[in-house]
Design a protein that fits this description.
A hairpin with a 2-residue loop joins strand 2 (about 70-80) and strand 3 (about 80-90). The protein has five helices and ten strands. The chain is of the alpha+beta class and about 220 residues long. The strands form two sheets. Strands 1, 5, 6, 7 and 8 form a five-stranded antiparallel sheet that branches. The radius of gyration is 24 Å and the shape is elongated.
């Protein structure tokens, strides 16, 4: 993050410098120099804006220093193959979703770093991406309606997308990958979801969830 801040400040200062030169050239009626300075101003301002958007994207992710609990899920059956899911995240408000199916799936996006980014002390970062319902039986999965919810808004300039589409613009990114975990839904079942540097891991957190996993086919 410090490199993004430093880059943004550098180009912001260059923008101010070009603004000053443009105004000075206009006062002296040196329109050719004013045109060149204004072009530099626009270019540096655009780059500064890109750094600002990337910084906003970075802070929209959570830091991952070790395996840690990223969410808890609790389910209440409201109809056959229909469950009310309660999503609980650390330092966040509980959110509720209606899922169809007999299994739930949680997806996350993870970004890890390589030198020189690691020298700056950057930890892997993650963002919970999607929660959805699914069916254990393939035939039902193909024919029955499915539900899926986006859990985090996508910034206008997302580090994930930049690293995937334009890797030369994100030289410090070592890996960017999606991770998902799924387990059965059951009335009263509660699960704890952790994220390590490798993958999401879901574990039963009460007897109803352990029984559901034990009967899972």
């Amino acid at each position: 993050m410090s490199s993004l801040i430093a880059g943004g400040l550098l180009f912001a200062l260059l923008t101010l410098l070009f603004v000053g030169r443009t105004l000075g050239s206009l006062r002296r009626r040196r329109f050719g120099r004013a045109t060149l300075s204004s072009a530099g101003c626009i270019g540096s301002a655009g780059i500064a804006l890109a750094f600002a958007l990337l910084l906003y994207s970075y802070v929209s992710y959570q830091r991952l220093t070790a395996e840690q609990v990223v969410a808890e899920l609790e389910f209440t059956r409201v109809a056959p193959y229909e469950f009310r899911a309660r999503l609980m995240v650390p330092a966040g408000r509980d959110r509720f979703f209606l899922l169809t199916g007999d299994e739930w799936q949680l997806d996350a996006r993870v970004i890890s770093w390589q030198p020189p980014a690691t020298i700056l002390g950057l930890d892997p970062i993650y963002r919970l991406d999607r929660l959805g319902g699914r069916y254990a039986e393939v035939d039902r999965e193909r024919s029955e309606p499915r539900t899926a919810y986006q859990l985090s808004p996508s910034p206008a300039l997302d580090l994930w997308r930049v690293a995937r589409r334009y890797p030369f613009l994100a030289p410090g990114v070592d890996a960017y990958y999606g991770s998902a975990t799924y387990l059965p839904m059951a009335d009263g079942a509660r699960y704890e979801v952790s994220l390590s540097r490798d993958a999401l891991v879901a574990r039963p957190a009460n007897e109803a969830a352990r029984e559901a996993v034990g009967n899972w086919n």
